[in-house]
C-alpha cells in the first residue's frame, strides 16, 4: 500500500496577496488614527503638549546649567546644546516605551483576524516616529531662528542620528514587548535598569570630557553615539571620534530580531495572559 502525500495548497494569486497587503495598510492606518484620538484627542491642546513638554524640559535644563556655567560645552547657546541631546533621547524613550506596550494597548482589537500584532507594533512606531520628527524639526528650527547660536547645520549627520534613534527605539521596544509579556516583572526591572540613561547618555556633557574609566563604560551606551553624531550636525568643530554607527545599528537590529522571534513564537500566549 503506497502513501500519497496530501496535495500542496496553491499559493495565493497576486490579486488576493495584493488585497491582503492593502488590508494590512488600512488596519495600520486605523490603529494610527485610534492612537491619535486616544493620546491627543482627549486632552486640551492635543498635539501642542507634544511640543510644549520637550521645550519646557530644554528651557529648564538651559536655565539651570546657565546659573552654574558661563558657556555650554559646545557653542554659545545652552538651548541648542541641550536640545541636540534631549530631543534624540526623548524620541528613543517615547518609541521604546510605546512600542513595548503595543500589544497590551491593542489587545481587544487583536482578537480579530484582520488585526495582527505586527500591525499594532508598526502603528505605534510610525505615529510616534512621525510625531517625534515633527517636534524635533519645529523646536530646532525655532531655536536656530530665534537664538544667535553660530551653528552651521549639516543635515546628513542629523538625519542619520534620527534614523538610528528610531531603529534603536523600535528594537528595544519590540524586545521589551516580548519580555514584559512573558515576564510581567520585566517592566519593573527595565525601569530600574534604564533610569540612569538620562544621566549617562551625554545630554549634559561631552563624551570627550569624561575620565578614561567613565569613557570605557559609557561607550557601550548606544545613545551616547547617537547624541554625539547629532551634535556634529550643528557644531562643525566637533568631531565626536567615539561615534560608531555600526555598533548602534548592530545593537538595534539584535534587539529587533530577538524581539520579533519571541513575539512570533509567543504572541498568542501573551494575548491570553
Topology, please?
Elements lengths: L13 H26 L8 H19 L11 H23 L1 H4 L11 H30 L8 H28 L3 H9 L2 H4 L11 H7 L3 H11 L12 H27 L2
Helix pairs in contact: 1-5, 2-3, 2-5, 3-5, 3-6, 3-10, 5-6, 6-10, 6-11, 10-11
Profile the largest sheet: none
Quote the beta fraction.
Answer: under 5%
Mean pLDDT: 86
Rounded to an integer in angstroms, the radius of gyration calculated over CA atoms is: 22 Å
* Count of separate structural domains: 1
> Termini distance?
47 Å
List segments where confidence is low: pLDDT < 50 over at least 5 consecutive residues.
none
Number of strand elements? 0
| Helical amount | 55-70%
Query: What characteristic shape results from the CA principal axes?
Result: globular
Global structural class: mainly alpha
Task: Name the helix and strand elements from N-terminus to C-terminus, one letter apiece.
Answer: HHHHHHHHHHH
| Total number of helices | 11
List keywords for this structure.
mainly alpha, globular, 69% helix
Task: Report on the architecture of this protein.
The chain has 273 residues and is mainly α. It has one domain (27-37, 46-271). 69% of the residues lie in helices and 0% in strands. The chain contains 11 helices and no strands. It has helices spanning 14-39, 48-66, 78-100, 102-105, 117-146, 155-182, 186-194, 197-200, 212-218, 222-232, 245-271. The radius of gyration is 22 Å and the shape is globular. The termini are far apart. The mean pLDDT is 86.
Amino acid at each position: 500500500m503506497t502513501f500519497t502525500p496530501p496535495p500542496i495548497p496553491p499559493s495565493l494569486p497576486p490579486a488576493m496577496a495584493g488585497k491582503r497587503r492593502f488590508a494590512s495598510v488600512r488596519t495600520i492606518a486605523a490603529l494610527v488614527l485610534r492612537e491619535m484620538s486616544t493620546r491627543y484627542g482627549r486632552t486640551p491642546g492635543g498635539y501642542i503638549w507634544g511640543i510644549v513638554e520637550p521645550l519646557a524640559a530644554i528651557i529648564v535644563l538651559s536655565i539651570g546649567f546657565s546659573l552654574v556655567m558661563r558657556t555650554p560645552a559646545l557653542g554659545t547657546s545652552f538651548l541648542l546644546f541641550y536640545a541636540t541631546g534631549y530631543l534624540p533621547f526623548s524620541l528613543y524613550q517615547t518609541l521604546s516605551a510605546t512600542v513595548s506596550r503595543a500589544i497590551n494597548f491593542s489587545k481587544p482589537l487583536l482578537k480579530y483576524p484582520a488585526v495582527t500584532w505586527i500591525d499594532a507594533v508598526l502603528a505605534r512606531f510610525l505615529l510616534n516616529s512621525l510625531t517625534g520628527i515633527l517636534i524635533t524639526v519645529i523646536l530646532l528650527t525655532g531655536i536656530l531662528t530665534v537664538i544667535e547660536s553660530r551653528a552651521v547645520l549639516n543635515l546628513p549627520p542629523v538625519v542619520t542620528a534620527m534614523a538610528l534613534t528610531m531603529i534603536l527605539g523600535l528594537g528595544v521596544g519590540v524586545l521589551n514587548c516580548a519580555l514584559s509579556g512573558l515576564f510581567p516583572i520585566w517592566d519593573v526591572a527595565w525601569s530600574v535598569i534604564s533610569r540612569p540613561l538620562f544621566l549617562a547618555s551625554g545630554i549634559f556633557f561631552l563624551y570627550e570630557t569624561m575620565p578614561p574609566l567613565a569613557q570605557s563604560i559609557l561607550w557601550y551606551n548606544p545613545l551616547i553615539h547617537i547624541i554625539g553624531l547629532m551634535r556634529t550636525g550643528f557644531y562643525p568643530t566637533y568631531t565626536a571620534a567615539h561615534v560608531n554607527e555600526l555598533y548602534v545599528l548592530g545593537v538595534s537590529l539584535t534587539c529587533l530580531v530577538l524581539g520579533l522571534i519571541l513575539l512570533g513564537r509567543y504572541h498568542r500566549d501573551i494575548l491570553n495572559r
